[in-house]
Amino acid sequence: MVQLLKADSPMTGETLAAKLKISLATIRADLRLLTTIGVLDARPKVGYAYQDASILPAGNEALFKTAIAKILLPPTEIKLTTSMEEAVTKLFIADVGSLYVLDDDGALVGLISRKDLLRASFTDRDTTLPASIVMTRMPNVVTVTANTTIMDASKLLLKHNVDSLPVVQNPSDTHVIGKITKNRIFKYLIETLAP
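The chain above was modelled as a monomer; its predicted structure follows.
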């Protein structure tokens, strides 16, 4: 997004989404975050424009080098055998965007997003089937460690177009200790940067 806006600003959210070949809803949180941290400027009825991120108040550069350990959220987990119906219920009761699927040893084996469950509900009416049939399987799930910086986590969220990343103890580990989401980073930045 930033590269497109560096080359051609201003641009509406709809135009930007069309150029990226994704929906506006998918990039809305990203646009909000980039506007909040000063990379983009939002102009009503005009669109988004790139602006140099160095306009952040002095001293806030360290904010982006902060480890995500400071702002981790608890993971929302299910077992491999959890049914579609149970998974949907847990997803909405916990009000989360994704569920982490664990095996009997508590190791991460996959991730199920709201989109995965929604798509499955339209194609398969049997809600007793295990939700794991629609999950993204390891090693295709991107994980981070608690020492990952806010900037690096943000870049991974944007690059992979996901709403959350499972946090593990070390890169070779598959036991989830937390999660980091776009909204958690956004909330932290707002709380920290607000006067």
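The chain has a mean pLDDT of 87.
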